[in-house]
Each structure stands twice: as C-alpha cells, then as structure tokens.
C-alpha cells in the first residue's frame, strides 16, 4: 500500500521485519512443542530465541541466491544458533510457517480494524442521538418523499456497522487457524500434538483438514467482510456527497483552517474525503475477487496464490483501517445545517404531506381510489404551477366538508413523522456513550 494511505499501527504489521518476526514466532512455538513432547532437549527453544538474528537486508541478499524467501530466512536466522538449529524448521514445510504467520497477521490486523470500527460506531451513535428529532426530508429515487429524522438516517448506518462488527468478529475467529502438518498436510513427519501445542501457544487453532496450505475460503470470508465494511462506509460517504451539493447543502464535510478546495476556484469546498472513501471501497471489493480466485489451487497446493496474497492481504487491511479512521473523523466532525433541512422541505410545495392527506381522507370514508385521485390531482397541479399544495387543497370543497380546520392543519406538521422515532432508538444501546 502506498504511504499516503498507510497509517500506524496497522501498517507496522506488514513490514518485512514484522513478517520475519512472525515466522520466528511460529518456528519457536514448534520447538517449544518439541520440548514439551521430549523431542528436543529442554532449553532448546530458549537457546534458539536468544541466538536467532533477524537481519532483513541479509535475508534479502540471501534470497537473491537461493530464490526462496523462507529458505533465506532460515539460513540467516539460524546462522549463529548452534545445536538448537537442528530443531528449527524440523519436519516443517514453508507453508506451515507462512500460512500460520499470515493467520497471526490477519488476526492482529482484524483486531485493530475492529477497534476502529467500534470508534466509528460510537461516533455515529453520538451523531444520531444529537439529531434524533432534527427534521429532514426523506428522499426516494432522489426525490422528496416524506419528512423523517436526520438522526434516524444516521441510525441506519449504526445498524449496518453493528452487523459488520458481528461479521468481523466471526471472521477473525474463523481466520485464527494455522497448520503445522507438513508437506501435504498428513503429519507424516510431525505428530499432530506438535501442531496442537504450538498453535495454542500462538493463540490459534488447527485447521480440521489442511493440504500443504490453510484452506483459502477462510481468507475469502475475512476479506469479504472488509468489503462489506467498505461498502457501508461508501454508502455513508455518498449520502454526505449528495447532501453537500450546493442546491441541497444540508450537511458538509469538515473544512480545516487553511484547507483549499480547488487550485482554480477559491470558493470551492468539495467533499473530497467522501469521494476518496468511495474510490477506496471499489478497491476493497476488487480484493475480494482475488481472494476468491485463490480458493482453487491444484491438488495439495500450487503457488499461484502467493504473489496475489502478498499484495491484497496488506493492502485490504490497511485500506479498511484507513477508511474507518477517516469515516470516524467524518462522523465526529460533520457540519449539519438544520435550517437548510427545514428550508428544503418547503421546496416541494408541501407535497411531502400527500400521503398524510390521502390516509386522512380514507379515514373519513373516501375509497382509497377516490382519495388517491383527489390528492394526486392537486399534487400535480402544485408541481406544474409551482403553487403550495396546502393552499390548493384548502380551496377544495370535499376537503372543507370532511375536515375541520384543526384537522387540516395537523396534516402538515413534520412532527407527526417523528412520533415513533424513540421506539426505533430504543432498539440500540446508548448507555455506554
């Protein structure tokens, strides 16, 4: 991932040095298992840990000669290990180390992403609570529909993100599997107890069945969840992008002091962060395709997955973390123009109350068809003539004959549409905020 979007602590998981350290974690856990099973003398793991040397540049130079990254790693790390080196990588194949270490990396990255997702959810909840009773026009097909609550609009993103958290928790649990089962996964040169003990030390679980590699559907599941998180953030970003249009201007991205929106037009305040997040969501979805392609490998394994994973595992986790970090910033600092929300409701000539009038007429004894025709007649007239729907209806005899003035006025109150908002909010936990 390019530096522009790589932020700590998640980018630190994917450095070469961190990768080699994870490989060493796996190798040492196996030696500790050997000790526990009396395969290696007591103290071998401690000696190996103390004498292991990770020299990134030397490993890379060695790889140029041997053309195999794990062999280069073993040669350099065990160079001064003495007799303990006999038990280093004993009975293992490269994928035992790489796949188990990747499980550690993805698990740790997932846990960081989960924390950032929690922060985002909390910021959305605070925004939703603040605007629980802020009236905004609801739009369907981009067209004014009926009044609703801006807080309720935000609450939909809370709910979606909470579902994504549940998915992520499951995906982290599922990805927390390694394998120490040898060249074709049949434990020919290792006792299954070695795997069980070593993985327990690493806080991982053995795959029920592995080939030379961990099954790649586990990766596909995890990265599918990241794509869902990205899609949810994109939906939030697109909502802001629309509401920030000049003709709408109900919300705005935060605009920092000294920030500039355009090199040519000094007046511009563009939703650049939301647009960036939209693009990043596209990238996350593309990585899912790569993860799915990696599921089908030849027989016990080929190496077609390796080059792909070196890119998307790093990039997807870094992107998801970055997106959540920025989405949290947006939710925490969103500029909300409540006056504009009220003004925009009036731009459709009170037509947002048409269903309310329709239902009232049905309540008064009109057939639904009769009521619909009457209301639509004046609704279309209001659109065509740019006249107030309420004023037009107030001159219709069938309205005057069936509704009192008080009943008529009540039909045009936006507060009516918020009467059950509390019931929806009660489905969520706000107690810890």
UniProtKB/TrEMBL annotation:
EC number per UniProt: 4.3.2.2
GO BP, sorted A to Z: 'de novo' AMP biosynthetic process; 'de novo' IMP biosynthetic process
Protein family membership: Belongs to the lyase 1 family. Adenylosuccinate lyase subfamily.
Reactions listed under catalytic activity: N(6)-(1,2-dicarboxyethyl)-AMP = fumarate + AMP; (2S)-2-[5-amino-1-(5-phospho-beta-D-ribosyl)imidazole-4-carboxamido]succinate = 5-amino-1-(5-phospho-beta-D-ribosyl)imidazole-4-carboxamide + fumarate
Keyword Transcription set for record: no
CDD domains to which the protein is assigned, alphabetical: Adenylsuccinate_lyase_1
SMART domains reported for this sequence: ADSL_C
NCBIfam families tied to this protein: purB (TIGR00928)
UniProt pathway: Purine metabolism; AMP biosynthesis via de novo pathway; AMP from IMP: step 2/2; Purine metabolism; IMP biosynthesis via de novo pathway; 5-amino-1-(5-phospho-D-ribosyl)imidazole-4-carboxamide from 5-amino-1-(5-phospho-D-ribosyl)imidazole-4-carboxylate: step 2/2
Gene Ontology CC terms: cytosol
Enzyme class, spelled out: lyase
Protein name: Adenylosuccinate lyase
UniProtKB keywords: Lyase, Purine biosynthesis
Coiled-coil segments: none
